[in-house]
Structures are given as C-alpha cells and as structure tokens.
Design a protein that fits this description.
The protein has 7 helices and no strands. By secondary structure, the chain is mainly α.
Length: about 180
C-alpha cells in the first residue's frame, strides 16, 4: 500500500480519494498480515449493532424515562439509514475493494460506499442521544461504539475514511437536529 493505484490518479478521480488512500495505507486497512486486527475489524463491522443494542437496552432497563428518547433515536436512525443508502446509490462512489485496493473482507456488493450507512446510523444515535449522555452514563458508550464501527468499516476495506467521516457527521447532525425539533 505504498503508492496509489492508477485508478486513484488522473483527471476523473478526486484529490480527496488520494488522501483517503494515504490514510488507509497509514492505518494498515485491509492488511492480512495482521490477522487478529483484521478479524476484530470484520467482527465489529458485522456485529457492532449488538453492543449498541445492549447499551440502549441497559439504559432503558435502568430508567423508564429513557424509553421515549431511545425509541425516538432508533426511529430517527432508521430514517437516516434510508437517506444514507439513497445518497450512496446516487453518488455511486466506489468502495476500496471495488478499486482493487484491498480484498472484499465483508463480501459486499458493488453499491457505492459514500456515505457509510453503518456510520450514519451510529452517528444518528450518538447525535440524537447526546443531550442525555451526561444524565445517563450508559449512553457514554454510544459515541465510542460509533467510532469503533467507523474504524472497523475502514479497516475491513468496505469504506474509505471519508465515507465513514461523512456518514458519522451526517448522522450526528440529522439525529441532533431532528431530536431538537421534536423537543
């Protein structure tokens, strides 16, 4: 991963993809010579919803007043998921494995990866629940799980760093704004 492949250079490619490539190379994304790190990334990329669900369930189990905010945040995250998938389809930005930069560790299809739907959903939960994080300590794990999910998606080769950063930012902004509008 020392030089960007020809697919990332030229008039049709954006300079930010070259920066993405450099960041991925620095991270060691998709490398098979670190099998434990790669397996951790693959596991998190597939299963990060489990610790998120447990975190939210624990919060609701400990506090009955958490049910409405958590349920609302989950509904908002569902809407953000639909928006992110439609945006990715419209933008049609190729994923790293589709450009031959790394193996397809997650067995994804060729659908575009910008923005990352996983990151957008996790960001939406973090943004929507941010006002309650100081009162309900269990929710402090939500942004950490979102960040780990984003790292895993990049490290497993499903996304470029900008895909997950845009997903996290989009989700967090929409989650926060929608929750504020709902009062």
């Amino acid at each position: 991963m020392s030089h960007p492949p020809p697919l990332l250079s030229g008039a049709r490619s954006a300079a930010w993809r070259a920066a993405d490539w450099q960041l991925m190379a620095w991270m060691g994304a998709g490398r098979v010579d670190r099998p434990l790190r790669l397996q951790l990334a693959i596991g998190l990329a597939h299963w990060s919803w489990v610790p998120m669900a447990l975190c939210l369930a624990l919060c609701v189990a400990r506090r009955t007043d958490a049910l409405v905010p958590v349920a609302t945040a989950l509904g908002l995250a569902t809407l953000v998921q639909v928006l992110a998938k439609r945006s990715a389809r419209w933008l049609s930005a190729p994923r790293p494995f589709a450009l031959g930069l790394c193996p397809n560790h997650l067995n994804h299809g060729e659908r575009g990866g910008m923005p990352s739907t996983h990151a957008a959903v996790m960001g939406a939960l973090a943004g929507a629940l941010a006002p309650w994080m100081a009162m309900w300590p269990e929710l402090a794990l939500v942004p950490a799980i979102a960040a780990l999910t984003a790292w895993a998606r990049v490290h497993a080769g499903a996304h470029f760093p900008s895909d997950v950063l845009v997903g996290l930012a989009l989700g967090a902004a929409l989650g926060r704004q929608a929750m504020a509008a709902l009062g």
